[in-house]
């Protein structure tokens, strides 16, 4: 009885707050670690050199089920109470009382439920370049939300504490998320919308779908930062509401995907092809020494991207030891070589996590002039007039 009374009071608090909850905090994602309902007004939290007013009404109901448990999309019922998940290429067959590989979709008496609807583990007002997206509203911010769960098992995962562990989470409704994004615009920040990131957003599908539709209706942009390991039907269903995606192509052999990430390459490539036909797409490859950084593999990746569209921005990111991996960081020479190889066939190639190399500016593919200069996350758009080079007039594939 106590639990029901508590939940009722929390829901009443949410109603009285008029579902307004600007959640913005730091330039780095913040993991919610304090138990209990969190309320406050006119707090001030540092965001790099910024000071962003924050008012929060977060409900600690996720650990009790309630709002965070909803019937899942994309599954079939089988004999003996089994459910067959159809969200991602794993196609999990799930017994009653068990979860799938992602840990956030559970069979309860023959019905598949999502366990993380509205569960927020991390949030931040990020530079859009951090996704990374270099050709989508450069210099803007985006309110970034993460939950829990992932359908791959990358041994180097930098967000394993939320993707593969069980962090404390608090509830945020789709309406609250959209209100939070709009609030930042009202406060004068260059926020363009919402990014679903930190963990795998397709394992947060039902919530992301509902929130993205609402944000789309409000004129906000929606961004997915994803491993691309998703089946075609759910991908196509959500794409009308998605404006941009950064998709990890973690390597270019199935052997690498199987051994390092417990997945397969082909579904990711198919997702890239589908997404590219519907929204702005950029790709990221983390180069891990000795595993996916050979010249042959890099050339195969570049050839494939060029065959799809040489205007797709490709980011080579430097690996650092994390989670289960203790290999040394990617040699700078490897990143430089990959960058040079890619520029033979692609127009926009970048180096991430290695500021000493540069490789983050956007150059005109026709005349070579610097169009967008980036120093860390400080961005100067200096050579664009709309989406054309101000020096030679060439069209530049950038959304502004």
From TrEMBL:
Entry's Gene Ontology molecular function annotations: 4 iron, 4 sulfur cluster binding; catalytic activity; metal ion binding
A UniProt-annotated Pfam family: Radical_SAM
Domain Radical SAM core: 135-356
CDD domains referenced in this protein's UniProt entry, alphabetically: Radical_SAM (cd01335)
Known cofactor(s): [4Fe-4S] cluster
Entry keywords, A to Z: 4Fe-4S, Iron, Iron-sulfur, Metal-binding, S-adenosyl-L-methionine
Domain of life: Bacteria
Record-linked InterPro entries: Aldolase_TIM (IPR013785), AmmeMemoSam_rS (IPR027596), Elp3/MiaA/NifB-like_rSAM (IPR006638), Organic_radical-activating (IPR034457), rSAM (IPR007197), rSAM_sf (IPR058240)
PANTHER family, alphabetized: PYRUVATE FORMATE-LYASE 1-ACTIVATING ENZYME, PYRUVATE FORMATE-LYASE-ACTIVATING ENZYME
Family matches, as NCBIfam families: AmmeMemoSam_rS
Protein's UniProt name: Radical SAM domain protein
